[in-house]
Amino acid sequence: MRGNGIIFPLMETVWIQEEQIGYAASLLQRGELVAFPTETVYGLGVSLSQPDAIPKVYQVKGRPSDNPLIAHISSPAQLTQLTTKLPPQKLIDAFWPGPLTLVLPKHPALPPLVTSHLPTIAVRLPSHPTARHLIDLVGSPLLAPSANLSGRPSATSASHVWDDFAGKIAAIVDGGDSPLGLESTVLLLAPKPTILRPGTITKEALEEVLQEPVAYADPKTAEPLSPGMRYRHYAPKAKVTWFSEEAPFLAYLEQSRSRLRMTLETPQPETLYADLRLADTNGLEEVVLYCSYELTQNVAFMNRLAKIAPEGV
Ligand code: AMP
Ligand code: MG
Fold first, then answer.
1. Per-residue pLDDT reduced to its tens digit, 20-41
2. Which residue of 41, 46, 57, 265 has the lowest C-beta tally within 10 Å?
3. Which residue from 186, 187, 206 is spatially nearest to 90, judged by alpha carbons?
4. What is residue 1's predicted lDDT score, i.e. its pLDDT?
5. Ligand 2 centroid vs 154 CA: distance in angstroms?
């Protein structure tokens, strides 16, 4: 098996139900990789207490080593292990637990490997009870990127994770479908609040709580701020074509008939990745989506779609 040119022996991957979550925690404490559910997408976790195991995450995902992982905590009290500057309490009160990742100055005691040598660390307190229970049992924050092979759609169920990582990681905790289905909003706090990755928590909601303007990072200049923005993301093997106008969408369907095509007339942000993965598991050649005006106003959804494919004309 290959990842970044490295060949791995296959290992047994255990499918763990909620009742056996203690076993998943013991694997993490021993430096094994365990995928776990969150309300956004599944994460591929490694314990912060086992930093020597961090490179395995990059190897099995095929993730570029300069793209850091998010630290998942189960209580704001764990922030002091990770950062020297606590975020504003009003942000914590309004959005944690939940799909908001905060980029903070990293604690000097953290090994450079933890943040891919960046001076900052990204931290999130997920609302999914299984994720929080697992972090509590491990007794240490879990560093985790999304549990998908690099470049593929994120995993929103345990079986998606199985498709990408069976034989490569120690275990998968099955917590059902991720209810939100899109990755967290990533917010850089200093020098001024800047959204590095849009998500379910909107710019407007952040501005209301912070009582100050929040900017979107310019993708052309933000690369040093958020390394992940540079890479191709979320794409299935099938070709994806999408339209924001109905007439060209219908004309396209009429002109190019195909049996190996999935047409999504009312795609949902919550199930976008699941639909794209379903197209691949069924060997489809193309996915065609129509985005209503309402959907085009969903900044997080349109951000992911734009990374998958340019708009059809
Ligand atoms: P993923 O793990 O696939 O959900 O991606 C995590 C995202 O958080 C990526 O886009 C990373 O580049 C971003 N990220 C993680 N740590 C930092 C950080 N210290 N500063 C800025 N962005 C970060
Ligand atoms: Mg990802």
1. 999 999 999 999 999 999 999 9
2. 265
3. 206
4. 45
5. 6
List CB contacts of 177: < 8 A, sequence separation 6 or more.
156, 157, 274
For the CA of 101, the nearest ligand: 1
**Of 197-206, 219-228, 239-248, 260-269, which range is least confident?**
219-228
**Boundaries of every domain in the chain:** 2-216, 239-308
Strands across the sheet containing 286-290: 239-243, 286-290, 261-264
Rounded distance from Cα 271 to ligand 2 centre (Å): 16
Q: Is the CB of 145 under 6 A from ligand 1?
A: yes
Average pLDDT over residues 75-101: 98
The pLDDT of residue 219: 73
For ligand 1, the distance from its centroid to the CA atom of residue 146, given in whole angstroms, is: 10
Radius of gyration of the chain (CA): 19
